[in-house]
Amino acid sequence: MAMPHTFVVLVENKPGVLNRVASLFRRRNYNIHSLNVGTTQDPRVSRMTLVVNTTPEKAPLIEANLYKLVNVIDVQDVTDRPAVRRELALIKVRARQGMRTEIINLASVFRANIVDATPETMTIEVTGTPEKIDSLIEMLGAADVVEVVRTGVLAMTRGTIEGARHLPGAGGR
After folding, report:
1. Whether residue 90 sits in one domain with residue 148
2. How is residue 163 annotated by DSSP?
3. Which of the 8 DSSP states describes residue 165?
4. CA dihedral sign of residues 149, 15, 155, 31
5. Beta-strand pair 145-150/154-157
6. Can you count the helices (H) and strands (E) in the chain?
7. Residues 11 and 56 in one domain
8. pTM value?
9. What is the rounded distance in angstroms from the CA atom of residue 52 to the CA atom of residue 140?
C-alpha cells in the first residue's frame, strides 16, 4: 500500500537541477506530495526534502533513480528514521467581530501566531506536523477559512545521524 516517503536529497546548487529532479518524477509517473528546496551551510549545495506517496517496495527505486542524476550528491530515505518533521502554514480566516477572541484563543492552543489582521480577516502562522496543521484548519472551519498556504514538510534526522551526507567537493560521489 502506498504511503508517504520522505527523501532528503543534496544537490549541486546550480540552475536546472530542480527541473531535472521534477522531470525524473514526471517521467516515472510519481506524484510529489511536497517539495522544499533551500541552500545548506555550504552555498554550493542545496537540500531538497521530497515527500512522495509510494509503496515500500518502490521507495528504493526512487532513491536509485535520484542517484542517477548528475547533480545529485546524496539521497537518503528518512521515512523510518528518527527525524524532526515540520511544516509551516499561513491560514487566512474571516474574522467577524464575535469570532476574533475565539480565533485568538484557538491559535494560542495550537501555539500559532496571528501575523496579520484587517477589519475583515486574520492571518494565522502555525508550525508543526502536518497533522497539527490539519487539525487547526479543521477547528477554524467555523471561522470561515479564506485561504491556506503550506510549505510542505521539512525533515532533519535527530541527533548525530545525518539525513544526507555532504561530501567534500559538492558533486563528487
Report:
1. yes
2. S
3. -
4. positive
5. unpaired
6. 4, 9
7. yes
8. 0.81
9. 28
Range of the domain at 110: 84-154
Residue with cell 548528475: 70
Do 140 and 106 form a contact (C-beta atoms < 8 A)?
A: yes
Q: Which residues are registered as beta bridge partners of 128? A: 87
The Cα 87–Cα 129 span in angstroms is 6
pLDDT tens digit sequence for 94-125: 998 888 999 999 999 999 999 999 999 999 99
Tens of pLDDT, residues 26-76: 998 889 999 999 999 999 999 999 999 998 999 999 999 999 999 999 999
Instruction: Give the integer Cα–Cα distance in Å for 141 and 173.
Output: 49
The domain boundary, picked from 81, 110, 130, lies at: 81
Q: Are 66 and 42 part of one and the same domain?
A: yes
Which triple of cell numbers denotes residue 98?
A: 464575535
Taken as a whole, the chain contains a residue count of 173
Same-domain pairing of 139 and 74: no
Pull the grid cell for residue 81. 528514521
Number of Cβ atoms within 10 Å of the Cβ of 117: 13
